[in-house]
Amino acid sequence: MKKLLPLLLLTHFGWADFPPDGARLLSTVTQPVMLRWDNPGKTFLLTVSISGRTIFQGPVEGNSYELPVRSGQLVRWAVQSEGDLSPVTQYRSFQYTQQNVFRFNGKDGQYSKLDQSKQQMQGPDGGPGGQVEVRLDKTPDGPMLTLQNQKYLMLPGPPLTIEVRGGKGADGPPGRRGLSGTNFYGSLDGMPGEPGGRGGNGGPGGTINIMAPGYPLEQFFNCEIQGGLPGKGGPGGPGGFAGWINDSGRHFSGRNGPEGPPGPDGSPGPQGRVFWRN
């Protein structure tokens, strides 16, 4: 990987100072960043600091240096000509992010306190997936990604996954207990439990709008737009308790009622959509 990376970067970006000052780099895989500069000369003094601490300062042959970085790090670096012993006054900086998935999925269905205080007949539905705006522009430094108004300079790597899946429906509520047996109803046997509630429906998948002039979709993005999974039907309620009576000193009792049937599952959410414009 280390041997291939410089070639990939040169082919992808061309030869110029890189990264540009203030850039936010985005990589879908863990990889070092190739620092490059266009200063005249063959040997240079390179200074690199991360989080305010100098991690490298020394001579470098040529016009590039492969720098190992971790996601979230803010890097400052400067290059001086060989023999220049003056203090460094101008640093370039960039931030490196390694992330292969951006998720804008709908929320799973959840019972509120109000739902829990009353008998529900169906589990809450999952929420809809997000509405995401994506733009990919060509720049001298490489593809510039704008994702929900956040800008990143993309490094070569596998496609970036954008998820707008619908939320999962909540499982249905349990059925209520059946009525207890009583001589008033003419039977000491408990009544069957009530059926379980229906599972919540999955939320609909969201929408991804992509504007990427001159770029193929498959090379840069993998879009996950599935509808949400349905919730399972709730369990049937327990059977009613057996009743009993004393009649002239004799004890009579019935049987506990059977458990009620489970409720039906919810429906899966409909798939979302991708609009690709180039």
Describe the structure concisely.
The chain has helices spanning 4-13, 113-116, 217-220; strands spanning 23-27, 33-36, 43-50, 53-61, 64-67, 74-81, 92-98, 101-103, 131-139, 142-147, 150-154, 160-163, 207-211, 221-224, 244-247, 250-253, 273-277.
Write up what this structure looks like.
- The protein has 3 helices and 17 strands.
- The chain is elongated.
- A hairpin with a 2-residue loop joins β10 and β11.
- Mean pLDDT is 87; it is low at 1-15.
- The strands form 4 sheets. The protein has a 10-stranded mixed sheet with strand order 4-3-6-7-1-11-10-9-13-17, with no helix packed on it.
- The chain is mainly beta and 278 residues long.
- It folds into 2 domains: 11-98, Immunoglobulins (Immunoglobulin-like); 101-278, no CATH class.
What's the helix and strand layout?
Blueprint: H1 4-13, E1 23-27, E2 33-36, E3 43-50, E4 53-61, E5 64-67, E6 74-81, E7 92-98, E8 101-103, H2 113-116, E9 131-139, E10 142-147, E11 150-154, E12 160-163, E13 207-211, H3 217-220, E14 221-224, E15 244-247, E16 250-253, E17 273-277
